[in-house]
Records
---
Amino acid sequence: MLALLLPSVAWAQFQGDERPQGDTTLVLSLDDAIKIALSENASVKVADMEVQRVKYAQKGSYGALFPQISASGMYSYAIKKQKVYFGSDDDSGSGSGSGGGMAGMITGLLEPIMYYIEQLYRATGTPFVPYVPPTPDPQDDDKGDDAIEMGRRNQVTFGLSASMPVVNLQLWESLKLTGDQVENAVEKARESRLGTVSSVKQAYFAVLLAKASYDVYNAVYENAVHNYKFTESRYNVQKASEMDMARAKSTLAAAIPNLFNSENAIFLALWQLKAVMGIDLDRAVDVSGKLEDYAEHMFYDFNEGADASLDRNSQMRQLAQQAEMLAKQIRMQQYAYIPTLSMQLSYNYYTQSDKFNLSQWKWLPSSTLVFNLSIPIFSGGQRYHAIKQTRVQASELEVQRQNAERQLRIGIRQNLSTMETSMKTYDAARSALESAEKAYDIASKSYQLGKSTFTDLNNTELTLTQTRMQAAQAVYNFVVAKAGLEQTLGYDFTQE
């Protein structure tokens, strides 16, 4: 690549002269142009980035198989503690208030125990003071009920948790689907390269055709100048008529616009080539060789081409990959009927205190291991209809594949027909070119000897010009059709 960017010495852009020393024009062969385009073209770069993005997505999807670990922390302050009641809110039964039933039951259980403790104290001579519960304040908000506050005002919790799937067939099938997505992205990148190579070839051949047209019209212009000067010299000595002089002037004037248009066509074709290659439009670029150089390779086995395989066609490969992905998607949706098993492990430290004194807080650990078995039973038909929908998509894709194959076969036959017609046209144009050149030479000498008119000379020159253009156009049509055929058949740049 660095060698290509160095100043080159090659033919002039419009003529065969060598370039002046110090010219920094980048002269490219077809292979050089393709190599630069495969590294600088925007669509190729975007396709490569897309492949990298999908690979990252695939690697990220495999993370679902590993434990998902997270840490958490919580602090809460109880503005008003929660209270709980024991017993029934029915006033009937022993005791009083809303907790009378529970209080009477507790009292009945404690009486024999308290009696036994009292006897022990008397045997040791120690006075026994029974516990008397406090009398509730009538002014309290709870109006004397036996509600008990729960918990502490400050509560802090720190913990770690980890979860991972143990049995999940749907997840495993989705991971296979991400692998197919990577392959599909790679194939799309290959399609972008094939399209770029075909576009570069077409742009490169367009430059050669424009230069061939320039050579033809430049020859017409030079002949017109030569004939004008010769007619003018004869007109000055009164050996040429005024009509011949007028025709010579009009022929010269008509040759100039064609020369300018062909010259402008070269600049436009070079700009198109630079745009396809992805290089700076202000960079001075030229192409090497001539369109006639490719006439030596105008042959093809048309019987083999008509029955060529589409196994390497990028569009057919992508359709096959999409069909495989839809099949895996159907299996993944069917696996939604199968139970899943997951595991979760948590380890926490927590503390509670009514006073905000960190040094006196007591931290208590706790840990749990949970196995979660999820059994799908009923989803309102969502899974069933999702499978039906995907199967319809698979049927649509099969119809699209058949139609795409039909269109590709038509394109192959069109390219082969164009190539065959171009070969016949070129052979006929080459045969006619020899006769046209000979006829023009005879007409030119006859005109100089005064044995033919200027009209005869113009007619023979027009035939010569048309024949030259037909030969160049035939070569261009052949190489462009062949480039399209190679793209359809999926030939890479490195393949024959």
Note: Residues 105 and 300 are 108 Å apart (CA to CA).
---
Amino acid sequence: MHFVKAKGILSAKNGINVYRGCLHGCIYCDSRSDCYRMEHAFEDIEVKENAVELLENELKKKRKKCMIGTGSMTDPYLPIEEKLCNVRIILQLIERYGFGFTVITKSDLILRDLDLLKKINEKTKCVVQMTLTTYDEALCRKLEPNVCTTKRRAEVLNVLRENGIPTVVWLSPILPFINDTEENLRGILQYCMQARVHGIICFGMGLTLRGGNREYFYGKLEQSFPRLKEKYQRIYGDNYIVSSPAHAKLMRIFHETCERERIMHDNEAIFSYLHTFEEKQKFEQMKLF
């Protein structure tokens, strides 16, 4: 872990990343790609020590309230967050200034901040996005070794539902010849149905591989899935998009299930929902009149 002074904190699309790098150890992580130009070891987490100050200044200047998002590049609920509490302080700011919030995570540490998530959701909208890839617990520990397993993440989704927090699941990535099975898909969908998630984001049954990410992924395949690296190289070469042979069948099951269970499954519609700011208290007052 090392600390830096950041020049800015809020992106053009109102996204923030308090940390850079990750310790979850997911074998497929796109954030390892060379194109992101990370100048330090991926596991040497960069902490933006002035993130809170920068964000408060940005929120004060905003003329219109909006959704603030985090987690697109780095899961904010890393183990170091338990000690540093930067995300919790940022949530306090977002709640104080009346902004909406959405986060992408794989960690059950998010439940630590349930009180603040509820407060935000009472005023506007707070949406938790949870990544689910692998129903089998033993396989999940191979693919995502340093973070809570899918079963625990599903439990988190249920806690959020019980507390009125809307949720969205990222069904991504699905790795060819590893977790691209009907059993895996139906297991994850069952978790989603039980938690009554608002939507499921899915870009297809497969993954993407770029320089930096590809080499790391292939190295992990050699360790945990003997001879699979050679199969990937033979079939996909240096392709960016690595699609499962079962893509068509699995996508049909996915869309049919979501349609039947009334789970939003149009990616554009979900992203529109995630980016749309709502003021619930004003809306409730208008209904009274």
Note: Residues 285-289 have pLDDT under 50 and may be disordered.
---
Amino acid sequence: MHFVNAKGILSASNGMNVYRGCTHGCIYCDSRSRCYHIDHAFEDIEVKQNAPQLLEDALRRKRRKCMISTGAMCDPYMHCEETVGLTRQCLQVIDRYGFGLAIQTKSDRVLRDLPLLKSIHQKAKCVVQITLTTVDDRLCRLIEPNVCPTSRRAQVLRILRDEGIPTVVWFCPVLPFLNDTPENVQAILSMCFEAKVQGILSFGMGVTLREGDREYFYQALDRHFPGVKQQYIRTFGLDYECPSPRSDQLMRLFDEQCAAHGVMHWPDEIFRYLQAFPEKNDGEQLTMF
């Protein structure tokens, strides 16, 4: 990893990334795409060492409280967080100033900061978002090799449920010819329903590939799934969107099951939920601190 002083930390939509790059090794990671202009090796993590100070300056200037989001591009709980601790420091700032948090990860390291998450949720609102792709831990270790397997993430969801922290699951990507089966969709949904998640995000049953991401993905397919790359090339060519041949069937199953269990599953509805900062908590006006 290498350290930099960033010029800013919050986007116009109040999102932040304290790291650039990732060491989780997910074979399908869109953040590897060249359009994001990461000009260093993806596993050589760029650490924005002044992120907590930038965040505190930004929150101090804000006139209204809002939700702060992190994890959309690079996981805030990758391996270097154990020693660098920037995510924890930023959460402490968010907690101190009474803002809300929507944090996205694949890692069980999020449980390390459970007391902070609970404090943020007590004062405002905290939502933890967890990505799930396959119920098969053996497949998970091939497509997401350096992060805890699905079974552990499902356990994390249940722990957060028991601790009163709301959760949202990102059910994506569904990789054609690998995990695009009704059995996998149903098993993932059952995990989510058991954990009483607030919402499950799906952008269609498939994967997106573009320059930078596609090459890495195809190299991994050649290593672990001989012949599958050729199926992708024959089926999708250089298309950005690569939907499962079973997409319609799987989306019907997804929509019907979520509706039957009363779980949010329309992306616009879920994003509104993630971005909504509560004006009141337990019947009382939120205080500044």
Note: The first helix runs from residue 51 to 61.
